[in-house]
Amino acid sequence: MKIGVLLPIAETDRGTTLRYREIREATLQLERDGFDSVWIVDHLLFQWEGQPQRGVWEGWTVLAALAEATTSIELGALVMCTAFRNPALLAKMADAVDEVSAGRLTLGLGAGWHEPEFTAFGYPIDHLAGRFEDALRIIAPLVRTGAVSYEGTYERAVDAVSLPRGPRPAGPPILIGASKPRMLRLTAELADAWNTCWLGRASELPEKLAPMHKACADIDRNPETLELTVGQLVTFPGLTQEDDFPDGVARFEFATPDDLAAEWKEFAIQGVKHLILYPTPYDAACLAGITAAFRTYREGKDE
User: Fold this and answer.
1) Which SS3 state, helix, strand or coil, does residue 273 take?
2) CATH of domain 2-299
3) Parallel, antiparallel, or unpaired: how do β-strands 147-151 and 274-279 relate?
4) Using CA of residue 164, residue 192, residue 112, residue 290, what is the dihedral sign?
5) What is the C-alpha separation between 207 and 188, in angstroms, rounded?
6) What is the maximum alpha-carbon separation in the chain?
7) Nearest-angstrom CA–CA distance, 43 and 34
8) Residue 275 dihedral angles phi and psi, to the nearest 5°
9) CA-CA distance, 109 to 215, in Å (whole number)?
10) What is the pLDDT of residues 205-263, one digit of tens each?
11) Which pairs with CB-CB distance under 8 Å and at least 24 residues apart come from 296-300?
12) Please, which residues have CB within 8 angstroms of residue 179's CB and are 6 or more apart in sequence?
C-alpha cells in the first residue's frame, strides 16, 4: 500500500501560511523520507460562518512547481475542481504537468462544493453533478487518447486535441473523489481510481465501500479494477484541542506511531492501494509521528 501526505497550501485558522519555499522543502523532505506521494487541495478561498476568509495558494501552479522541484515522489490533488477551469484546458494542463514530472501525476477530479468560493470568483454553483459529468466526458478521452468532440448541456469541445502527448500513452490516471450516487456512477464508468475521505479508522471504510461497489455492479465493472484510495486524518495526543473538532478527536488520534502503523495494516487488508494522510496539525511533532509510523510499516513489509 502506498502512503502519501496532504500538503498545507491554505491559511490555517490560526492565521499562519506556509510560503512556497516551505511547501517545497516539506515536499523534498517527504521525498527523502521515502513517502510515495504528496497531494494538494484545490480551493480558491474558505469562508465559514462567523469567521474571516482564509486564502489558498492556487493549486495547479503549486503542483507544477513541485513537479519540477522533485524527482521521484508522485503528485496529485484531492481534488481539482472541474468547475474552476475549462475542461479541455484542464486536460492539457494535466498533460503538461505529467510531462514536467516525467509521469508522476495522478489527475484527481471533483465537482466542488464550497459555495462561498464559487460566489466570490463568479462560478455557477447550480447543477454541480451535471456540470461535472460534462467536464469529465471531455477530460477523460482527451487525456487518454489526445482528442475529443463532445457537446453537453454545460460544456463543449469541438475537435479538441491535446498535443504533444505526455510521457504516458494513456495519460495520467484519473482519480475521482465522490460519495453521492450520480458521482459514484461516473466514477465507476470513467475513473481509474476512487478516493473517499476523511476517515480515521479502517473500521469506517466498509460503510463507504458499499455504495461504490453497488455503482460498479450497476455497470458490470469489477470493483477490483478501480483503485481504492483513502484520505486519513491523523493526530497524536496533545497536538490538537478538543474544541477544534466538535465531534472529538478519538477516531483519528493515535496513541503512538506503532498504533498508526497497525491501523494501516487494517486499511491494506481491506484493499486500500493508496492512503493519503492529513496531518492534524501539520507541524513537526505530527510529521515526526507519521514518519515513524511509515518506517515501522515499511520495515514490516506490509504491502
Assistant:
1) coil
2) 3.20.20.30
3) unpaired
4) negative
5) 17
6) 56
7) 28
8) -110, 130
9) 18
10) 999 999 999 999 999 999 999 999 999 999 999 998 766 787 789 999 999 999 999 99
11) 296/257, 296/258, 296/261, 297/3, 297/261, 297/264, 297/265, 298/34, 300/261, 300/265
12) 196, 208, 211
What span, in angstroms and rounded, lies between the C-alpha atoms of 159 and 144? 15
Give the DSSP H or E segment for 110: strand 105-110
Say whether 216 sits in a helix, a strand or coil.
Answer: helix
Contact 4, 76 (CB under 8 A): yes
How many whole angstroms separate alpha carbon 157 and alpha carbon 151? 7
Name all contacts of 280-287 with Cβ < 8 Å and 24+ positions apart: 280/233, 280/234, 280/235, 280/239, 280/240, 280/252, 281/12, 281/235, 281/239, 281/240, 282/7, 282/8, 283/239, 285/236, 285/239, 286/234, 286/235, 286/236, 286/239
- DSSP-derived letter for residue 159 is E
Strands 156-161 and 227-234: unpaired
Question: ∠106-129-84 over CA atoms, to 5°?
Answer: 60
pLDDT tens figures, 256-297:
999 999 999 999 999 999 999 999 999 999 999 999 999 999
Q: For residue 287, give the nearest of 297, 277, 296 by alpha carbon.
A: 277
Dihedral of CA 187/143/81/177: which sign?
positive
Say what the pLDDT of residue 256 is: 98
Q: Taking Cα atoms as reference points, which of 26, 104, 101, 107 lies closest to residue 68?
A: 101
**Is the model's pLDDT at 76 over the cut of 90?**
yes
CB distance 174 to 192 below 8 Å? yes
Buried b / exposed e along 156-194 (16+ C-beta atoms within 10 A):
ebeebebeebbebeebbbbbbbbeeeebbbbbbbbbbbb
Q: How far is it, in rounded angstroms, from Cα 141 to Cα 88? A: 10
Residue 14 is predicted with a pLDDT of: 67
